[in-house]
Design goal:
elongated; 28 helices; transmembrane helix; membrane; 661 residues; 69% helix; single chain; Growth Hormone, Chain: A
Length: 661
């Protein structure tokens, strides 16, 4: 009796199927009305299916808009009521909730954003205080000072690929711990960097940045995959909260990178005022510059040490979804078969995530790398580091607005990931191409504010578009066993775009930069439109269902929503990937797959008498499910054959899927 009254959450039954007219349940035989209603509720969550069992993307446009806005409206009211209750009980509890669920998962990106972008902020101060080394290169090697940009990016690329593989091999938790340790040691190196002369100091500084960059690179695949797989919580996916807010959850962690940039700029301003006798104006003493930049690196070292502790002791479930996926496929070590099959089946997706990230990073890092020249255009007679920092603070503030807008809209089924990325790319294209071909006009004193507005808007649309979306989809569109690897590879290709900008911008003028940059925005939009699937509103567990069929060599037997045209790229639709989509057959398959899970669990209970540790099942099946599966012990003849464990095992016996890296 108790189990029949349990709270099903997203899977709450919609009531008895009294008229037998639910679309997806018409062909399911041997069910009484109560059983049909309960199964309908379990397999058709009401946040993505209407009351008749029709998927939201199958609804006519008018009904689709009404359904989506209705679901989002109910969820918004629920969240507002929840916030109201929290405020009533404890006015500070919403702050604690935000810190636990948004700040802590993105703490690594906050710290790396603080340090990574501080390099460009510190450079003007070092050039002003040590001009013979950092500006005229009389006593320092110019190649080594320029290598600061190159080797930092190279370290990030190494970390993205290396830790991406480690994250899929040893688990998300160990990848996260390793990143934090590497970043902590790197910060100690940056704080203490010195040499017997100033050139030796530059060389030590450069290699410290490279080492720190390895940890930064690992943060990208680890934060994205662990955030998507609910690493801080129980490790469960396919909940209503996950379906409605998965994008917001990941981008809320990612936007901490923006807060890191903001915090760094504020702290540098405060430290310079402290060590430069309350003034931000030149000339700057060597002592003030040294104290300012070294203390600015020592501060995040404390936070990074805490991050090592938190990830070791508080994120024990970070690898749960990965290990469950491997367990189902009888894989230990690195899943080389999944990697090969991903290249075969999802190669165009890899082109989309890597290519779009490459185009974006030419924009994003190019914007950061030549912001000093941009500020010089705005303030032609300025020689104060402080004024440049204040302009940058405004730019970061505009970017933060873009980050939050992306977080709010990225899960909206009527807009979502793909359109957000395309619109962001096209907006950046326009905002750079307009001043490119009329540069003198927009940089003249009478029109400089229009130039400033376009530059700031480009920062906004970069965050409210490709920079946020690439971070999410580069993990989301791939199967669990190689998710971190694919994300790391895509991010590494992206950093090649940053490297291109870092090298190219040393050889072309500011106006020529505006000639070059816009076309990467246009190219990014085209790659996204052609090859990127739209995973907005797609149940992550459903994507794993499809991968199970693909991995077993039975792609044509999968009929579910993961191959709905809405969730396929234009290229995949042209190739006919979605031709096997069939809502009725899919429902029948899901009933039989649920039966297989129920039978396996009953067998385990009979053999062991206890629940298997880390089992990916809900607490208990409803009574109606128990009675239906008990009564219908064999498959109905009209059911589509399902993937049974023995069949999967046989299909993998000779394919080397248990290889270790």
């Amino acid at each position: 009796m108790t189990s029949s009254l349990r709270d099903y959450g997203a899977a709450a039954p919609h009531g008895p199927n009294m008229d037998r007219h639910h679309v997806a349940t018409q062909d399911v035989s041997a069910m009484n009305p109560n059983e049909a209603g309960v199964l309908h509720g379990l397999l058709h969550p009401d946040d993505i299916y209407d009351a008749d069992g029709t998927y939201w993307a199958d609804l006519p446009m008018g009904k689709r808009i009404k359904f989506v806005t209705g679901v989002d409206g109910q969820e918004s009211k629920k969240e507002l009521r929840s916030i109201g209750t929290m405020l009533k009980n404890d006015p500070l509890s919403p702050v604690g909730y935000y810190l636990r669920n948004m700040v802590v998962p993105g703490a690594g990106l906050l710290l790396e954003g603080y340090v990574l972008f501080s390099i460009g902020n510190v450079r003007p101060l070092l050039q002003a205080a040590f001009p013979s080394c950092w500006k005229t290169f009389d006593i320092c090697n110019e190649t080594w000072t320029q290598a600061i940009d190159y080797l930092e990016i190279c370290g990030i690329i190494v970390g993205q690929i290396l830790v991406g593989i480690i994250g899929d091999w040893l688990g998300r938790r160990w990848g996260l711990i390793q990143d934090a340790v590497v970043m902590f040691v790197g910060l100690i190196m940056l704080t203490a960097a010195w040499g017997v002369d100033q050139n030796g100091w530059v060389i030590c500084y450069v290699w410290s940045l490279f080492f720190y960059g390895v940890g930064v690179g690992g943060e990208y695949p680890m934060t994205a995959t662990s955030g998507m797989e609910n690493a801080v919580g129980s490790g469960k996916v396919s909940t209503k909260d996950d379906r409605l807010h998965r994008g917001r959850k990941v981008t809320s962690a990612f936007l901490m990178q923006g807060w890191g940039q903001f915090a760094n700029q504020v702290i540098l301003i405060i430290l310079l005022l402290i060590f430069h006798h309350g003034s931000g104006n030149p000339p700057y003493s060597k002592v003030a510059a040294q104290w300012t930049y070294r203390v600015s690196f020592a501060i995040p070292a404390v936070g990074t040490l805490w991050l090592v502790y938190f990830r070791y002791y508080k994120m024990r479930s970070a690898s749960k979804q990965l290990f469950l996926a491997k367990k189902k496929q009888k894989v230990t070590g690195y899943d080389t078969k999944s990697l090969k099959m991903t290249l075969t089946y999802f190669g165009p997706r890899l082109l989309a995530t890597a290519g779009a990230w490459f185009a974006n990073d030419v924009f994003f890092y190019g914007n950061k790398l030549f912001q000093n020249q941009f500020i010089a255009v705005l303030t032609p007679n300025n020689h104060s580091v402080m004024e440049g920092w204040l302009y940058n603070l405004v730019n970061v503030g505009v970017s933060l607005v873009g980050y939050y807008m992306a977080s709010f809209f990225i899960d909206n089924k009527l807009y979502g990931r793909k359109w957000m990325m395309i619109v962001g790319f096209l907006a950046d294209f326009i905002l750079f191409v307009v001043p490119a071909f009329n540069y003198d006009f927009f940089t003249s004193p009478n029109h400089i504010h229009a130039f400033q507005a376009m530059y700031f808007l480009s920062s906004f649309f970069n965050q409210f578009g490709p920079n946020s979306v690439t971070f999410l989809v580069a993990a989301e569109v791939y199967p669990t066993p190689i998710r971190a690897t694919a994300h790391g590879f895509s991010a590494a290709v992206g950093k090649l775009g940053a490297l291109l900008a870092a090298v190219l911008y040393n050889y072309i003028t500011t106006q020529q930069k505006f000639y070059v940059v816009p076309w990467f925005g246009l190219g990014g939009a085209l790659v996204t439109w052609l090859f990127l699937p739209d995973t907005t509103g797609l149940d992550l567990k459903e994507q794993e269902r499809r991968w199970t069929y693909i991995r077993a060599g039975r792609e044509e037997d999968y009929h579910g929503i993961a191959i709905h045209p809405k969730h396929l790229s234009l290229w995949e639709r042209i190739r006919g990937v979605g031709k096997h989509y069939d809502a009725t057959l899919d429902y029948q398959q899901k009933v039989e797959e649920l039966r297989a899970e129920w039978e396996a669990r009953q067998a385990r209970k009979g053999n062991e008498g206890v629940k298997v540790e880390d089992e990916d099942d809900e607490d208990d099946y409803p009574n109606e499910v128990h009675t239906y599966f008990s009564r219908t012990a064999t498959n109905s003849p009209n059911m589509t054959p399902m993937l049974r464990p023995k069949e999967k095992q046989a299909s993998e016996s000779d394919d080397g899927s248990n290889e270790k890296l």
